[in-house]
Amino acid sequence: MTVDPGPLLSLVPEQQSLAWLRRGEGFVGWGEAARIETSGPGRFADAQAAWDRICASAVVRDEVDVPGSGLVAFGSFAFADEPGASVLIVPEVVVGHRAGTWWVTTISRAALPGPPDLTPESLPRPPEELIFHDGALSGAEWELAVAEAVRRIGDGEVEKVVLARDLVVAATEDIDVRWPLHQLAVRYRSCWTFHVAGLFGATPEMLLRRERGLVTSRVLAGTIRRTGDDQHDLALAGSLARSSKDLEEHEFAVRSVARSLTPYCSSMNVPETPFVMHLPNVMHLATDVTGVVGEQGQGTTALDLAAALHPTAAVGGTPTDDAVKLIAEIERMPRGRYAGPVGWTDAHGDGEWGIALRCAEISGNQARLFAGCGIVASSDPEVELAESQAKLVPVRDALEP
Fold it and tell me: Between the CA of residue 369 and those of 133, 238, 288, what are the distances in Å?
């Protein structure tokens, strides 16, 4: 490695690894003390119920007492009710870092595992001889799907729909997930870098954070590609902030989040105007929606709130139920856990759940990369294809040697 991504990520072993990191803080874990697998419409509630049973029977000694210390589980949930499997994993060891505080949590039914192998032979290995090819649809076929979505929007079936596409890559040997994790953590420090059960990525979008009664959701919708020229990018940021198409798409997403959180919060702050979030490859319109859990939301966990929010207009569309049905009809690929909630929860109900974007799922020597775009009445299929290609860049580059 020519760069040091930080001490937390350097601890991640090759096998049974878990990660949730941003700007050098967060958690890494390894081993499995328990695994909860769910599916179908009740996947969130079933996972929460199983987690509650684990927490109720656990004996916990937590001298740190911050959100994420003590008993914790990492999770990743399917986007759609069917098909798709969701998972919560309780690691055997967690190393955490937050605001200058470090801790180690050990979770075990019997003997504790030792530290991961940190010999030179165990360091992350770059994939070799990568070959990329189209996933479910070629670029031209996906443009036709976008055109069909625009037509259906014009017919009044939906106001907005988010269409995704995939890209498949194969290497000569099994892909070591630690390699792209390191690259993403270094290049996209403002994003949340994650790995749960083969799904890895760097998401810029915080679906839901619950921390001792305070709730935050970061909404991203509306995107423009960066050029690398600072002056030109500044002009592009201005055009994004004035774009009626992107502002319309963003308003749909913010309205969806605020509407879903209202039943649980005694007060909420929803900014009227988005800000432009700058990432190395793209810029997004962004809004941070915040709230305070009221009496009506007492006992509601971070996972409960994530379930209430999912899917937002940012990854589904508006109206959500109709848009999700349209996705299943014309997208022509299984999303799996792409665009579903990914993150962690603790025994107190606090947690962080991002949306699994800018991500890929590894299976042996292959990986499946995903990108999606919000389609509205004024969308141009060629422009949307270019936007999807820009969104594939982070993970594609992270896999390169």
Answer: 11, 30, 27
Instruction: Tell the residue number behind the tokens 């949590």, with chain if given.
Output: 105
Which candidate in 160, 352, 384, 391 is catalytic?
Answer: 160
What does the alpha-carbon distance between residue 170 and residue 70 come to, in Å, rounded to a whole number?
Answer: 39
SS3 state of residue 376? coil
Using CA of residue 394, residue 166, residue 216, residue 54, what is the dihedral sign? negative
Range with the lowest mean pLDDT among 37-46, 214-223, 351-360?
Answer: 214-223
Interatomic CA distance for residues 257 and 272, integer angstroms = 14
Predicted confidence (pLDDT) per residue in 232-247, tens digit: 989 999 999 999 888 9
Q: Which CATH architecture has domain 9-399?
A: 4-Layer Sandwich (3.60)
Tokens of 193: 């870098």
Q: Which residue has the tokens 């009506």?
A: 296
pLDDT digits (tens, 9 = 90+) for 200-222: 999 988 999 999 889 999 988 88
Taking CA 373 as the corner, what is the angle to CA 368 and CA 377, rounded to the nearest 5 degrees?
A: 150
Q: How many C-alpha atoms does 327 have within 13 Å on its Cβ side?
A: 30
The token pair at 235 is 């002009």
How is residue 108 written in tokens? 């075990």
Residues facing residue 218 across a β-bridge: 288
- The one-letter amino acid code at 3 reads V
User: Left, alpha or beta for 343 (phi > 0: left; psi -120 to 50: alpha)?
Assistant: left
At residue 3, does pLDDT exceed 60? no
| Contact of 38 with 46, CB cutoff 8 Å | yes
Give dist(CA 50, CA 72) in Å, integer: 13
What single-letter DSSP state applies at residue 342?
Answer: E
- Count of CB atoms within 10 A of residue 266's CB? 12
b/e burial code for range 234-249 (CB count within 10 A of at least 16 → b): eebbeebbebebbbbb
Residue the block writes with tokens 């916990």:
60
What is the residue extent of each domain of the chain?
A: 9-399
Is 160 a catalytic site residue? Answer: yes
**pLDDT at residue 352 greater than cutoff 80:** yes
Of 205, 249, 251, 384, which is the active-site residue? 205
Give yes or no for a contact between 396 and 369, defined as CB atoms under 8 angstroms apart: yes
